[in-house]
Amino acid sequence: MGSVVLHNLLSEEFGVATSCFGTPLALYHFLHTRPEVHAIQESFRQGALTEGTIRRFVVELLQDLHSGIRFPHELAICALAVALESRATDFAEEFLLDLARLRTAEMSLSIRVARECLKRRMELPRTKGKVFRLGKVSNGNLVKFFGGRSVGSTISFPVSSESTLAIAR
Amino acid sequence: MPKLEYFLAALSITDDKTTNLVSLFHVIEMLSAEQFPTTAPSFVAVSAWLLSEEDQGHDFQVTLNIRYADSQEWLPSPDLKVNFTADGRRLRIYHHVHGLSLDHPGELTLVLMLDGQQVAEHTVTVSKQAGED
Hints:
The structure holds 2 protein chains of 2 kinds. Chain A is mainly alpha-helical. Chain A folds into 2 domains: 2-121; 137-169, no CATH class. Chain A has helices at 2-7, 12-18, 24-33, 35-46, 51-62, 74-84, 90-101, 108-121; strands spanning 125-133, 142-146, 165-168. A two-stranded antiparallel ribbon of chain A has the order 2-3. In chain A, helix 7 packs across helix 8 (108-121). In chain A, 27% of the residues are buried. Chain B is mainly β. Chain B has one domain (3-128): Immunoglobulins (Immunoglobulin-like). Chain B has strands spanning 3-16, 21-27, 30-33, 38-39, 43-50, 59-68, 80-85, 90-98, 101-102, 106-114, 117-128. A 5-stranded mixed beta sheet of chain B has the order 3-11-10-6-7, with no helix packed on it. Chain B has a 4-stranded antiparallel beta sheet with strand order 2-1-5-8, with no helix packed on it. In chain B, strands 4-9 form a two-stranded antiparallel ribbon. Strand 1 (125-133) of chain A pairs parallel with strand 8 (90-98) of chain B, so a sheet runs across the interface.
């Protein structure tokens, strides 16, 4: 399924639908509405598509990149950029950054769409975490976490009930 | 300055890489132990920050301090610090804390500080567990 949704980006129907946009911003917005882009995102969610598959697909497409000739798979690359825009992985970040940094006239449209994606991506939450090990984690003692009692409801969480989450240490 | 959106401590957390959504599991409100001193189960303190245009490119430090409400002494030493450079509109900071030692029951206050200024706190009630029937 993963490679099918990618190869849909090379279909004539997709090419015709997306080829009439004069500006990268208009194309960017249109791609967000395309079922081909949604299908890629959905395949990711379902685990049917991996970033490795996308990497191989892109490498395959780039074999048709030739100096002085407009890259024939620009729209597919644009669609991938939009599909990866909100994906919080290093691959997605690298894909968009590498594309946006390119200075080649043959791929000018996808470069500008990637820049638009990066601009939107800046709006997405980023995460930074740090692990602090303060001492021995396990001491053989039983520590229980529990919630408060609910008010005005028939459901309650008594301190010693089985609804408490017990974590044996 | 970064604006705090929320601050919570929970037993575990997941980031969905596909949707970039965060889920917190079992927000900590109370805990009990059979005996003291004991070690608190591992937890994560999550703070979500909104960064303005003016913040971009500037360095900030978010510190998690923990103390009993009836004490001025911070429990872990040194402070639990996370440094960051503002880059983007939103940032989530996770303090993963393992092996926090608790020597008696009481109200535990998790204090969140931005560049040395307190911005929020989260209170956890620590009690001695009654004997099993």
